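This week, look over our next protein:
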Amino acid sequence: FVAKAAAGRADEINTCIACNQACLDEIFEGRLTYCLVNPRACRETELRIEPTKRAKNLAVVGAGPAGMACALTAAERGHQVTLFEAASEIGGQFNLARRIPGKEEFAETLRYFAHRLRASSVSIELGRTCQVADLVDGRFDHVVLATGIVPRRPELPGIEHSKVISYADLLEGYRVAGRRVAILGAGGIGFDVAEFLTHVDDDRDDVVRFRDEWGIDGEYAQRGGLKAPIPEPTQREVWLLQRKTSKVGDGLAKTTGWIRRTLLKKRGVQMLAGVSYERIDEAGLHIVIEGKPQCLAVDHVIVCAGQEPRRELEDGLRAAGVPLSLIGGADVASELDAKRAIDQGTRLAAVL
């Protein structure tokens, strides 16, 4: 870090994104800490990146966190790597995460990977949707599928109604939610969407905004540096729903879950557990809670009901006998776990 900074090579510095997921969350569970964006931290002697004894020609399909980490690590070891990405930019699900207020730092990880990829020997093909035929022509010794996930659509009457919006379409700006919104699913993505929907952009400085919302007196004019919080105005009424009967947000990260629940409560988000979804129609979202049916008269329903692995290439590649590995969401799609994805991509490349 010091050498890079002194030499003016700031783009080569892998920046902390303040996620707490692999450091403080691990410490408070009594486990060895490491880093989401650098899985070798505290594991330098265990996760060794050494020159390969036999260079291979590798295809990595998907330039999300897992694919980028795998491609870069494999190239560092001396392999010839081609990185395919269907979108016009690298990043995968990180491009959605960085749009969430408070997660803007995720863009720093994409900046770092973009710089490293430009400086590496990795051949990058953006805007390229791979077919099985592209990968079985004998060019590649091994194919890594890092193709990510597809959002799950629950089996629910009315799920095709125009009121229904996928979280990806919402965050990418393809659809805009109305003033009354129900969110199906209260995992990490559901909380992200709730924060996105209740955030109001204005011309205040970010520091001033934070101090106002949380009652911090930056001038220390009042005792303890505290003042009366100024409620954050919201333009929407939001319901955050889950089928499970446990506390909403119970599965969030240990060090950040409590503050995320507190934030949504301050913004008036109604968080309901034990919800049975009945149907969606012009009247809104019909649900049952504790045996009592009711209808939420919402303008839109945002679906955050989990993910499925994107594996449409797998069967064809296995049938052709192509050596194959799956990483990231293409391997396990439960929630969106960048910590596991980057670690898994790095570890696979270390042994290929």
